[in-house]
Amino acid sequence: MEVYLDNSATTRVIEPVRDVVVRTMTEDYGNPSSLHRKGFEAESYIKTARMDIAKTLKAQMKEIYFTSGGTESNNMAIIGAAMANKRRGNHIITTTIEHASVYNVFGFLENEGFRVSYVPVDEHGHVRLDELENVLDDETILVSAMYVNNEIGSVNPIAEIGTLIKKKVPHALFHVDAIQAYGKYRIYPQRMGIDLLSVSGHKIHGPKGTGFLYIREGTKVRPLLYGGGQQNDMRSGTDNVPGVAGLGVAAVEMYTRFEEKIDHLYQIKELFIREVQTLEGTRVNGLTGRDSAPHIVSVSFEGVRSEVLLHSLEERKVYVSSGSACSSNHPAVSGTLQGIGVEKKYLDSTLRFSFSTFTTEEEICYAVDCLRELLPVLRRYSRR
Amino acid sequence: MVQVFLIKYAEIAIKGKNRYLFEDALVRQMRQKLYKIDGQFKVFKESGRVYVKAEGAFDYDETVDCLQKIFGIVAICPIVQKSKMNFEELKKEVLAHVEKEYPDKNFTFKMFCRRVDKSFPMESNDVNAALGEAILEAFPETKVDVHDPQVKINVELRPTLVNIYSKSIPGQGGMPAGTAGKATLLLSGGIDSPVAGYMIAKRGVTLDAVYFHAPPYTSERAKEKVVDLAKLVSVYTGPIRLHVINFTEIQLYIYDQCPHDELTIIMRRYMMRIAEKIAEESGSLGLITGESLGQVASQTIQSLAVTNEVCKLPVYRPLIAFDKDDIVKIAKKINTFETSILPYEDCCTIFVAKHPVTKPIVKAIAKSEENLAEKIDEMVERALDTREVIEVQA
What we know:
By secondary structure, chain A is of the alpha/beta class. Chain A folds into two domains: 15-254, 3-Layer(aba) Sandwich (Aspartate Aminotransferase, domain 2); 257-380, Aspartate Aminotransferase, domain 1, CATH 3.90.1150.10. In chain A, helix 2 (37-57) runs parallel beside helix 8, helix 9 runs parallel beside helix 13 (361-380) and helix 10 (306-315) crosses helix 13. Chain A has 13 helices and 13 strands. The two termini of chain A are 34 Å apart. By secondary structure, chain B is an alpha/beta fold. Chain B is built from 13 helices and 15 strands. Chain B has helices at residues 19-35, 60-68, 87-101, 124-138, 192-201, 220-237, 248-257, 263-282, 301-308, 324-333, 337-340, 362-370, 376-385, and strands spanning 3-8, 40-46, 49-55, 75-83, 108-115, 143-144, 151-157, 161-165, 169-170, 182-186, 206-213, 240-246, 287-288, 315-316, 388-392. In chain B, the strands form two sheets. In chain B, strands 1, 2, 3, 4, 5, 6, 7, 8 and 9 form a nine-stranded mixed beta sheet that branches. In chain B, strands 14-13-10-11-12-15 form a six-stranded mixed beta sheet. At the A-B interface, helix 10 of A face loops of B.
């Protein structure tokens, strides 16, 4: 049995997405910028996707800008907003547990002369609202916070953060990295005080190299890419018709029979946590149950190196991620586990399991059985 | 466009009656390597000289780069090659050569004439004098310096050909691949072993390689990295047969049965034993390691003595007296460094003790190995039987 529990890294493309991608590559392959019918037909795919996606956010079509994925969306939102609003102020805010595609962008802007505040999180991985309130000032032009944390699945109180920002500094923009949240939560930017929202396609069973940025109407953002003036001059470059069409279909699919799917994910997650807690020397990081994201669980295994456990699971065709970027090839980039106060000895012993709606109870039981088998062996052979 | 290169080789010239074997091997290597790049190439021998004639869509730099990676070539000289001619024609050609190759004429030079064709009416010294004069006259900025010239202008008057050249591009040196038997390289993912393999191969030795893989402690990517390294080394050495041995079972057994501080040294002894078995079956006449004296606990003079003791074949350790910096320099030169430093763990480091023995004694280690007697032979057999063989070629 092959068990893919790395759906926060990427997901399998679903059939209807594949079909529309193939169709727009081989039949309706026109360039939407072309004046002839072939171009017009291609354009209609973009229009449909834009409309479908806007609907899921209760947003307007013109507020959706397609990008090459989460990283570009985050870059465009943060750099674009900071550059366009720097006359108003020089202060930008983010949190200590952001993804590299936000964190490193703030590092870049810091080097460019912006004043950056990093707001810490509490032991559950939630942004400290009191700390945020303290650092917000008249100079603040942008706050960026992730909706769902990619390492431990903690969920920020986005609406509360939005309200707080708009109350204290009405002109400050609020960017939300929703890459792990879109398709798992109903997100309505208008009501939640969100001005900019990043989404990636391949996390929701869409194609890689796709994504979008929601930009609330009237928000000043400077483009990153210049050229032919596509997408209202905000993001030049020939429209990625197959990608966008696929993304649109994936988005619709995510929000079809939505509650049912989310319930399934939570059942899977609860089953996994219940089972994994029967194993000795394990520890689930962050909150569990409905207070956390439905598809991510972070587990520390005492006395086992995550990389070794990962490869042992791989031999049994169970695919997961190591839980903290600390143990992968970029030492100490991530602060999530440290941020929520996980002890040092667990940092290198943590795996992330992430589910999709296709994950079955049988797969979960198989994965936990593998763990049950492997842990004692791996603990016996450790560095002395 | 046509460009002829004169290929200089040094040591081959002294190999007596075997000389043609070495020359033929060199020519074969050159044909094989040049075949893979754009252009038409003719490699030919003419009275003790090897030439490459490049025609068609060849790229000068790519051609030189390709020749520079072939063992046995000491220098590559781009030459003007014409058929036999009289002095006046020769003078014209030499002047044209200087005109074309040296836009800035402010240099010192010396003429070197070799008159192989004794029917040429002037003697070498007269040719030198006459040509030198002609150059000085045509390009007044130039100067003659017979002791330390900046440019050496060579004119070779051969029985049917005339060669004119003044540039010499350094080659790899060494001996042509495939002229000195075979040896088996213990290849890890580190910086040293690829360099060691390269150095021995440079003496004409064909390489086989062994890599010890320890899943799940070492990842697929670590193995891929070793394959990539073998590929980079094979740019110089020619095809390498890489044996991937699954070493996990043996490693864990040693871990269970032997004192922990001796784990690495015992492990290395088994690696040598296994490598020797592979070497014997493939006709290798030696083992090659990247060991460098004192670099780590398992490479002290005592540890090497203990490791060495298990094999009968000679173990070549070309880096034995090298400092790390010097090894890194070669690794950078042969382009393996960047790959070597990718951060994947290799099987030597995963269980390494905090304080491994640095001065092991053969007797004590052999005694510890007695604890392995029950299963180790069978495990070594299994490791050999289940090996994966990858033919690596650049």
